[in-house]
């Protein structure tokens, strides 16, 4: 899998995948774009939501699923100390035992299958090649 990122203006870039999807990338605070860290956070939250979706809906029926991710770092730091991901589910239609089962099953699935959060937990090497 390759994502191409192309400069479109001053501090403006567009990321594209092979399926035709695009996302605008820019500096922090730039209107209409995601910063690179925001994309990383979206990837973490999205991976958790996608990994848990089928398990959740199979046990709860159709309910809203919302995931959020926040970076953990001191102000002005250029490295994340961590990423906090939360999954917001309305499990009020289930008894306490069923709620606990959903939480446990989704946690196990995310820990085993979510590529983004599993990668963030490791200290993977990033290799830069300048052509």
Summarize the structure in short.
By secondary structure, the protein is α+β, with helices and mostly antiparallel strands. The protein has helices at 36-60, 96-113, 115-121; strands at residues 4-9, 12-16, 22-26, 65-72, 82-89.
Q: What is the level-2 CATH architecture name of the largest domain?
A: 2-Layer Sandwich
What does the main sheet amount to? 3 strands, antiparallel
Number of helices: 3
Specify the overall morphology.
Answer: elongated
N-to-C series of helices and strands = EEEHEEHH
CATH fold node name of the largest domain: GMP Synthetase, Chain A, domain 3
The radius of gyration is 18 Å
CATH H-level superfamily title of the largest domain: K homology (KH) domain
Strand order of the largest sheet: 1-2-3
Overall SS class: alpha+beta
Beta content comes to: 15-25%
Domains (count) = 2
Distance between the termini: 19 Å
Flag low-confidence runs: none
Pfam families: OsmC (PF02566)
Protein name: OsmC family protein
